[in-house]
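Worked example

This section walks through a single chain of length 141. The input is the sequence exactly as stored; nothing has been trimmed or padded.
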Amino acid sequence: MRWTREKLAAGAVVALLGLTGCGGSGGSSGAAKDQVPAAATGSLEDLAADVNCKPNIQTDADEIRQAICTNSDGKFVLATFATDRGQREWINDAKDYGGYYLVGRKWVAVGDDGVVKALRGKLGGDVEVGADHHSHAGHSG
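Given that input, the structure is written out below as tokens.
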């Protein structure tokens, strides 16, 4: 099962990076931090409705449900998990590929910096940042 979870995490992030063009970060807004609601709960469809997106389901399994979403904030991956442990393992694997992660209880939204900040204003949650996929380790000048 571990291989499947890693493959799903990698696939979600690679798909997202392709959708966003591996985009850089947008502007930052400290004021939004004070207006973060309590973290949302519910099914993938409930969370998608909270952010005005019709989810395009990519994975519908017992452990994880995952969809591509688009709304006025941009494109992002939205995933829900059966267990907290499954969610944490997925996030830890996915973060190797970079990106920005909005994390709630048994759900995660993955997108570029601006999208995640906008979603946080609607869904609450905590932001986590993946590895910097723009760095070039081992490159000497």
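What to look for: Residues 76 and 111 are 5 Å apart (CA to CA).
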